[in-house]
Every structure is written in C-alpha cells, then in structure tokens.
C-alpha cells in the first residue's frame, strides 16, 4: 500500500473539503502514473518514485463530475479544467498540448486507453468523440432531451457508453464504431450532483446513484429492477476493467462487491478520511482511492 498526501491549498471562500478533496482519479496506461483532480487543480503522482507535483492550477467547479485520464502513450493528461476547454497537458512540462473548446460543456470522460474522449458539448447536450492526439472530432450522437448530460461512463471494452442527468440514465451502443441514432435503454432514476455512474467492462452492469444511495442494474434484464445497496454515504464508483467487480467508497471505507448479487466481497479502511473517488489501473491489478482530506492511497488488488 502507498499513501500520498497532496500539498495543502487553502481558499477562504470554500470549505476545506471542497478545496482539498480528490474528486476524480485516473491511471496511466502502464499503471505507473496517477492523476488526482481536486477543485483547485491536478496533481500528478508517480507511484514508482512516490513524487507528487502540481500539473495544473485552476479552480474548476464546473468540471466536478468529469473524469480524467491519459493519452495512449501516457505522455499527456486529459482533463476538463475550466468552463470553456477540455485540455491535454504534457506530463513533463504541464503545458497545454491540445484543447477542445466550446461555449458549453456537460460531462467529459476519457475512453479506455485514452484513444477517444467523450465530450458533452453544445446546447443540445450531445456527445462528441474527440481524438486527444490528432484533435479530430466525430459526429455527435445521443444526449438527453430533458436536461444536460452531467456525467458519462464508458465500458472498458469501448462498446457501451452511459450518460446521466439528474433524472435518468441513458445507454448507447457503440459496437462497430457507429454513431447510434438513439439510446438502447433509458432508466428513470433520481440522482444528485455530481451523480455517481459506472459501467462494467462488458457493459452488462450499470451502477448509478448519489451520495445517499447507490443502485446496480443488470442490463440484460429489468424484470426485477435494480439492486439498492445499503444507504450511504457513497463516494466514487468504478468497475474492474477485466472482471465483474465493483468498487465504491462507503464513508471512510472502500468496498468491493459482486455486481451480480450486490454482495460485499471485501472492505478496507486505509484511514485517509471520507472517500470521494476510486479508480482501477488498466490491468485491474491495482486500485486507488482519494479522500476529502486530500489523501490518495494505491494498493494491490488481492481478491
């Protein structure tokens, strides 16, 4: 287990847990680097040397529900860092290598391997596929007719994407690289902001919720409805990229679950404070969790 403390950043007009809290985490393709995003900027963690350094400094309340990730070669960090641009930051220098600008953004989520970034942009709240290396964009699809798509989740196989506003979750089929004409599934559910959202590696299970409640759906059938997990607080949710295993924060603990049954498989407490974010490395062999106290823990998965 490795423990990292992000440097202190104070700001008088926001509660300390807002300033220091680790809202999203993302591993590099080789699992060596980790990007931790707070509402004041992004911190690059090298799990080999245990060095922690600031990659960008930007108060970015607008991007609270958006994910972070790396380009396929691991030399760039992908993040939505203010109200007007999704950017690729050079890992070595912190300079902006490329950016996607728009008048309005909703959710932003790097896809598996960082080859494609899914960006909700424009007034119609549609999803654009953006290549962070070439800067090319593909035709938009999807969106919510009744409100902005606040958060996205992509399956590890790249075949499915889910998006949510605060009233419903929609699922789109990306198999064959096509732009889907319509959602294949629409699930009515009352969520908060930022919502919790994750898709299993094969797109068969969906986890969605808010701090007070988390549900799991088996997307092959809705006959029995979702499984409702015990009341929270919940913080962060992620599926393993190689097998059906769900990870989420539960107060100061991290919990692994079998998504088929909802049963708890393992529970760990690293003593870092209330969990706000969790992530799996691309090979599924390590996990990370970030807390409201600005602490990040990385550990080997032994299940």
Judging from the principal axes of the Cα atoms, what is the shape?
A: globular
Q: What is the count of DSSP helices, taking H or I runs of 4+ residues?
A: 1
As residue ranges, the low-confidence spans are: none
How many structurally independent domains? 1
Structural class: mainly beta
How would you describe what is shown here?
With 303 residues, this protein is an all-beta fold. It has a single domain, classed as Methylamine Dehydrogenase, Chain H (7 Propeller), CATH 2.130.10. The chain contains 1 helix and 27 strands. The strands form 7 sheets. The protein has a 4-stranded antiparallel beta sheet, with no helix packed on it. The longest helix has 5 residues.
Which SSEs are present, and which pair or pack?
Blueprint: E1 2-5, H1 16-20, E2 24-27, E3 33-38, E4 41-46, E5 51-57, E6 69-70, E7 76-80, E8 85-90, E9 96-101, E10 105-110, E11 117-121, E12 126-130, E13 151-154, E14 160-164, E15 168-173, E16 185-188, E17 196-199, E18 205-209, E19 214-218, E20 227-228, E21 234-239, E22 246-250, E23 253-257, E24 264-269, E25 275-280, E26 286-291, E27 295-300
Antiparallel strand pairs: 1-27, 2-3, 3-4, 4-5, 6-7, 7-8, 8-9, 10-11, 11-12, 13-14, 14-15, 15-16, 17-18, 18-19, 19-20, 21-22, 22-23, 23-24, 25-26, 26-27
């Amino acid at each position: 287990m490795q423990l990292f403390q992000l440097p202190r950043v104070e700001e008088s007009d926001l509660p300390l847990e807002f300033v220091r809290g680790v809202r999203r985490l993302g591993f590099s393709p080789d699992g060596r680097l980790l990007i931790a995003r707070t509402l004041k900027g992004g911190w690059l963690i090298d799990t080999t040397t245990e060095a922690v350094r600031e990659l960008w400094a930007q108060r970015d309340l607008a991007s609270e529900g958006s994910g972070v990730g790396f380009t396929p070669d691991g030399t760039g960090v992908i993040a939505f860092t203010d109200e007007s641009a999704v950017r690729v930051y050079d890992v070595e220098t912190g300079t902006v290598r490329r950016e996607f600008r728009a008048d309005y953004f909703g959710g932003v989520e790097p896809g598996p391997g960082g080859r494609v970034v899914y960006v909700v942009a424009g007034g119609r709240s549609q999803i654009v596929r953006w290549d962070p290396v070439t800067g090319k964009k593909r035709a938009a699809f999807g969106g919510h007719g009744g409100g902005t798509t606040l958060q996205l989740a992509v399956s590890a196989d790249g075949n499915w994407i889910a998006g949510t506003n605060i009233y419903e979750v929609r699922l789109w089929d990306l198999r064959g690289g096509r732009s889907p004409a319509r959602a294949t599934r629409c699930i009515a559910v009352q969520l908060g902001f930022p919502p919790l959202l994750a898709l299993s590696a094969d797109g068969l299970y969906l986890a969605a919720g808010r701090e007070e409640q988390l549900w799991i759906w088996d997307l092959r059938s809705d006959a029995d409805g979702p499984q409702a997990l015990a009341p929270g607080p919940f913080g962060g949710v992620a599926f393993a990229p190689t097998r059906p295993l769900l990870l989420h924060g539960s107060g100061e603990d991290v919990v692994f679950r079998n998504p088929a049954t909802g049963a708890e498989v393992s529970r760990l407490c690293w003593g870092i404070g209330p969990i706000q974010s969790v992530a799996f490395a691309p090979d599924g062999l390590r996990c990370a969790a970030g807390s409201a106290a600005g602490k990040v823990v990385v550990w080997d998965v032994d299940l």
